[in-house]
Design goal:
By secondary structure, the chain is α/β, with parallel strands linked by helices. The chain has a 6-stranded parallel sheet, with helices on both faces.
Length: 250
């Protein structure tokens, strides 16, 4: 079983590719916490790295997982460049539950947070071909039951970004808001939000206080009505994995 958390489809697509090679099934992490998956002999966690660490949604859900100490647990991080402390953080959480992570790795994908810096994630699609070989090797390692954790160390950058004072200053820069003048109330942003953080009121979308900065709403809004730091995202800069549809995210 491969459990994933995904905002723009990168983690979902990687999960599907691994599942195909490993003859596994995929399931959203937020659904898995409502089930008992302790009977699974192999459990994978696939999630992105945000701010040099695991997304808040992941760190809130992982402690609720019901896993077996006998399961072969692995972590794969799709990321723009660095895995940060994402693997280290989740390994510690699972260790506290008596669960050992047998294997971990990262694979580079287009960085959906690039729009926050004014860059175009679609200019990074070259990463798919460049890192296709690594994905095959990761799947082969997992199939063989290799026990080795790559990119699982603690890093100062991840620790710094996790400081409350730093987060209070930086996270608002990447927390979406709705431009009500542009919003047509289609509800698409609410449908793709993995946190259920967006609601409709009086024909307009509204962001709540449970955002994990995945930016799904920013990238999928067909009217560019969801802004970051008060700045709209050009349509040409909106990104989602080319093999993942809106329907897949619902």
């Amino acid at each position: 079983m491969i459990l994933y958390f995904s905002g723009t489809g990168n983690s979902l697509a990687i999960s599907r590719q691994l599942a195909e090679r490993l003859d596994e099934q995929v399931m959203p992490l937020n659904r898995a916490v409502t089930l008992d998956v302790s009977h699974e002999r192999r459990v994978g966690l696939v999630f992105p790295c945000y701010w040099f660490n695991a997304p808040r949604a992941v760190t809130e859900l992982v402690p609720r997982l019901r896993l077996s100490e006998e399961s072969y647990v692995f972590i794969v991080i799709p990321c723009g460049a660095q895995a940060g402390n994402a693997i280290w953080t989740v390994r510690r959480m699972l260790a506290a539950k008596g669960i050992d992570v047998a294997y971990s790795h990262k694979i580079r994908v287009p960085d959906n947070s690039a729009v926050g810096f004014g860059r175009n994630p679609n200019e990074q699609v070259w990463k798919f071909d460049c890192y296709a070989g690594r994905l095959k090797r990761i799947a082969a390692d997992i199939a063989a039951g290799v026990r080795r954790c790559h990119y699982a160390w603690w890093g100062a950058a991840g620790a710094l970004c996790a400081l409350p004072t730093v987060q209070r200053r930086t996270l608002p820069m990447f927390t979406p808001a709705v431009d009500t003048d542009k919003c047509v109330g289609c509800g698409l942003c609410a449908q793709v939000c993995p946190q259920g953080n967006i609601t409709l009121a009086d024909g307009k979308a509204r962001c709540g206080g449970n955002c994990t900065q995945c930016l799904a709403c920013v990238h999928f809004c067909s009217h560019q009505a969801v802004v970051i730091n008060s700045k709209p995202t050009p349509k040409a800069h909106q990104y989602h994995h080319p093999k993942v549809t809106v329907g897949d995210m619902r």
